# Entry
Amino acid sequence: MADPAILNWRRLGPALTSSGQPSEAQLAEIAALGVSEIINLGPHAHVQALPDEAASVTALGMRYTYIPVDFAAPTESDYAAFAAAMGEAQAAGRAVHVHCIVNARVSAFFYRYRRNAIGEAAARAELESVWQPAGVWATFIGDAPVEGADHRYRGRDY
# Structure
């Protein structure tokens, strides 16, 4: 089966994928790929979020973890919850799909999570294939924010 055509879809490994917000039909495609866990970093209140994603995911037989990350203020506790969820899923051998609204939050979280495992250059390339964070997100990933710089999706609601 081919990978779903979801905004900013990325295959990061045989059991690890990420994307922007999937539709109901795309959740079924993700399940058909063998994914057994969905981690959502996007807020349920976002206009592009599904009406009841938790119910949709569990109806497809997948586990659902919800970690709503405020795009204007990602926190260390958000990251700790993400790292714990990823660690648990990987320890259990579950295939995981992580998404938010456009894959910006997720790519920054994965950059931090994967840079020690796959190396700085590879993790940076994965991140920058989606966006180039600035401001609070530059700080979140450990970069020094550049005065006046903005990330690629400037003016968009993530």
About this structure: The mean pLDDT is 91.
